[in-house]
Amino acid sequence: MQYMDDSVMLAALKGGDLKAYQYFFMKYYKPLCLKARTMLTVMEEAEQLVQHVFVQVWEEQLYLEIDHSMGGYLYKMVHNSCVNLVKKSDSDDRFSADPGLLMVRHVEFPLPTPYSVLSLSGPEKDRVEQFRRIMENGVLYAKQLCREVLRTLRLRK
């Protein structure tokens, strides 16, 4: 049913109905911001990018070119705009198109110790602590490798 609602609203938008445009904005703005946020590290930049996409679609009447899915069209525009912005960026630390790198970037140290570990004693507790230290070192190493890979890829361009 959602597809049918979107197709009906797209037809209304093509007919000049401003409420249809508002419908698409209200429906897709937040999900598109979250999509952009997975590619950009700052939510405010993601929101600005999505706003720009909506303005561009309206001002250039790009909705007239859409045959099937307004949502799919908006997602593709946001994705491509994010990719272009990432390519323009000179900073390794500010942008990333890799959601995996974003996850690694946001790991906090020291890693939290689960409450169940606090009740352990002796060799079990030592093994858990050793594992936690190994994990922390692994994440730090992965962060370093990601930075080096991004730097190398940018130098190739």
Mean pLDDT across the residues is: 77
What's the total helix number? Answer: 7
- Along the chain, the helix and strand elements come as HHHHHHH
Low-confidence stretches: none
Question: Major sheet, described briefly?
Answer: none
Give the radius of gyration: 22 Å
**First CA to last CA: what distance?**
45 Å
Could you say which overall geometry the principal axes of the C-alpha atoms support?
elongated
The overall strand count is 0
Percent of residues in helices comes to: over 70%
Q: Which structural class best describes the helix and strand composition?
A: mainly alpha
Q: Strand percentage, roughly?
A: under 5%
Give a quick precis of the structure:
The protein is mainly α and 157 residues long. The protein has 7 helices and no strands.
Q: Can you offer a commentary on this structure?
A:
The protein is mainly α and 157 residues long. Helices cover 74% and strands 0% of the residues. It has seven helices and no strands. It has helices at 2-14, 18-39, 43-59, 70-88, 99-105, 115-118, 123-156. It is elongated, with a radius of gyration of 22 Å.
